[in-house]
Amino acid sequence: MKTLLAPRKRVRETSPRAYQTGILQRHPKNPIIAPGDMPVPCSSVFNCGATWFEDRVLLLLRVEDMARDNAFYVATSEDGVTFEIQTEPVDYPLRDTESRFLENRFDMRITQLEGHYYVTHASWLGGYGSCIGTALTKDFRSFEAVGELSVPSNRNAALFPEKIQGRYARLERPQNIDGGGRIWVSYSPDLLHWGESRPVVMPDTPWSRCKVGAGAVPIKTEHGWLCVYHATAKNCATENYYLGAMLLDLNQPDRIVAAPRQFILQPETPYECMGQVPNVVFTNGAVVMPDGTLNIYYGGADTRICLAQVSVDELVEYCLTER
Predict the structure, then answer these.
(1) Per the domain annotation, does 12 fall within a domain?
(2) Ranges of the chain with pLDDT below 70
(3) Residue 183 lies in a domain
(4) What is the separation, in whole angstroms, between the first and last Cα of the chain?
């Protein structure tokens, strides 16, 4: 007796399944800036600061050359996707303490405030720890240092784009003994002296138990300050970076209005999982486009610049409903 087999159905080829991006959409042209796009030979293009400047999206790129020395380049774009990269690096100011002990500067964030653009960065001073530095510019050609470095063991400074109850405010991450830490808010009357620091108490989630730090500069909405932040968790032999979103109170930004337990981006694609530091998605720059789209520029594996997008309204609604 013969067993009749049902004819096999031909499976029609379809486009690859989307990665689990959640609310964010990775841009199909990712990575949008790779080491080979730079005007000089380099090994990595790291997560960048981002802002609007003269009706264009401007990125401040940190680049490591083939000796792993750092330089900073400006890139601009009309559409936020295709960038023109300046051929010469900017002359970013160096304080006396940095000239003596600096090993690296990184994680630039750009805030437009009171007619200037303020750039915050972290300076790694070797055995003397990590400090926050600030510079200001009007044209992204010349920069002026604002005061001295912060107290040591601090980084991830994101300056709010307006004063809060008459004072400047910034998010920051004081480091604990093992290099981790959480987000705090500090205040200043003059951008020089910072204090009255308060912790931003985040939900305890498995993907954020190693460290939690500020990401892009906060964006003001009617429901609160919209913040895209980073967090890490150890997974067997690796430490993975994730992005999350939350809303902070407009007048008391240490108070959380809404913070979903879910992350909004994890490393999945080859350009996020393979590179100088595997399994990293890290942002310190986001720009609201004219149509309300939030362009989140993030580093993939500490090697290249990538872009994820979502509307501001949609991300705010997500924060408010996915608690």
Answers:
(1) no
(2) 1-21
(3) yes
(4) 61
Phi, psi dihedral angles at 79 (to 5 degrees): -105, -5
Q: Render pLDDT for 16-30 as a digit per residue (tens, 0 to 9).
A: 455 655 799 999 999
Euclidean distance between CA atoms 173 and 193, whole angstroms: 17
- Write the pLDDT tens digit of every residue in 8-19: 333 333 334 556
pTM of the model: 0.93
pLDDT of residue 7: 41
Integer angstrom CA distances of residue 41 from 35, 45, 69, 85, 105: 7, 11, 12, 14, 19
**Interatomic CA distance for residues 89 and 138, integer angstroms:** 17
Of 189, 190, 151, nearest to 172 by C-alpha is 151
Asked whether residue 255 is assigned to any structural domain, the reply reads yes
Name the percent of the chain in helix, strand, coil, to the closest 5.
10, 45, 45
Which pLDDT score is estimated for 281?
98
In Å, what is the CA distance from 32 to each residue of 235, 241, 304, 305?
Answer: 28, 20, 8, 6
- Domains held by the chain: number: 1
Which residue range forms the structural domain that includes residue 162? 25-321
Task: Report the distance separating Cα 63 and Cα 125, nearest Å.
Answer: 18
CA–CA separation, 248 vs 256, rounded Å? 5
pLDDT of the residue at 115: 94
**CB-based contact 44:302 (threshold 8 Å):** yes
DSSP secondary structure code for residue 66 in this structure: T
